[in-house]
Write a structure and sequence with these properties.
Layout (H helix, E strand, L loop, with lengths): L1 E3 L2 E2 L4 E2 L4 E4 L2 E2 L4 E2 L3 E3 L4 E2 L4 E2 L3 E3 L4 E2 L4 E4 L12 E4 L4 E2 L4 E3 L8 E4 L4 E2 L4 E2 L4 E2 L4 E2 L4 E2 L4 E2 L4 E2 L4 E2 L4 E2 L4 E2 L4 E2 L7 E4 L5 E5 L1 H6 L4 H15 L5 H12 L3 H12 L7
Parallel strand pairs: 1-4, 2-5, 3-6, 4-7, 5-8, 6-9, 7-10, 8-11, 9-12, 10-13, 11-14, 12-15, 13-16, 14-17, 15-18, 16-19, 17-20, 18-21, 19-22, 20-23, 21-24, 22-25, 23-26, 24-27, 26-28
Antiparallel strand pairs: 28-29
Helix pairs in contact: 2-3, 3-4
Length: about 260
């Protein structure tokens, strides 16, 4: 173990092969395993477990009883080397679980910067989470899910494996999502989640002006309310994309998906 001025509680168990940065704090009865790297000024609460291979960046705050870097919950996992990579300035609250990747799923679970994971949230194997996301209590990702930047998952949301959630999307409380959610879209609970317009309030808070928001609304109507075929909707999006970078991003998301869009 290498540590520069690290504040490690005497009851913590830190493997000698772990590498801790400057001013890392480790709480009582926390376990940190071999092949774990923790960046400068990261704080880890009591009764946590962090298993490697795991790389955690700077200035994260991991609260008590979180379980980070555990083996993937996948019957095909056979002990191969797989990783978890977490960026900087994330807040990970009590009883959060984040698993490493799988050998046939890319081998890495990856989390970006400045995210909030509230109590009892779960990030499964091979997921990719962007930056500035909020996962409210008990929100859950199955394996291989991709989440873009500035996404909000409300409490008790469940995302089906291999789904993608586009940037600036908002998933309402208790929604179960079994298809791709395009960027900017708001989803509400209705048995399974259903699209319910765009995330206007979230876009406003992030500085989107009226022109940008109007273009996104037109794109939403073309995609979900035009009444034509899927290809007809895409043709309308292509026309709208000529004048809007946001619509171009939405179109790229729609055209690159392997799963059906949520409807």
């Amino acid at each position: 173990m290498s540590a520069g001025g690290a504040g490690i509680h005497p009851t913590a168990a830190v493997d000698p092969a772990a590498r801790l940065g400057v001013d890392v704090e480790v709480g009582a009865f926390t376990y940190i395993g071999a092949d774990v790297e923790i960046g400068d000024r990261t704080r880890i609460g009591a009764h946590c477990s962090i298993h490697g291979p795991t790389r955690i960046g700077r200035e994260n705050h991991i609260h008590g009883h979180a379980a980070i870097g555990g083996e993937p919950q996948d019957k095909k996992f056979a002990g191969e080397r797989v990783e978890l990579v977490i960026g900087d300035r994330n807040t990970i609250r009590e009883f959060v679980t984040v698993n490493r990747g799988t050998g046939d799923g890319g081998g890495v679970t990856r989390i970006g910067d400045d995210n909030w994971f509230l109590a009892y949230t779960h990030v499964a194997h091979d997921c990719v989470v962007g930056n500035h996301c909020v996962f409210s209590n008990n929100a859950t990702l199955a394996g291989h899910v991709e989440v873009g930047d500035h996404v909000i998952l409300s409490g008790f949301v469940g995302i089906h494996q291999f789904c993608r959630i586009g940037m600036h999307a908002f998933i309402g409380m208790g929604a179960f999502v079994n298809g791709d959610v395009p960027p900017f879209v708001m989803v509400a609970q209705d048995g399974y989640g259903r699209p319910r317009g765009i995330n206007s309030e979230g876009l406003k808070r992030r500085g989107f002006d009226a022109t940008r928001t109007a273009a996104i609304k037109r794109a939403y109507r073309a995609l979900y309310m035009s009444g034509g075929s899927s290809e007809d909707a895409r043709e309308k999006l292509r026309a709208l994309a000529a004048d809007s970078e946001d619509v171009r991003h939405l179109l790229e998301f729609v055209e690159s998906g392997q799963r059906p869009l949520l409807r």
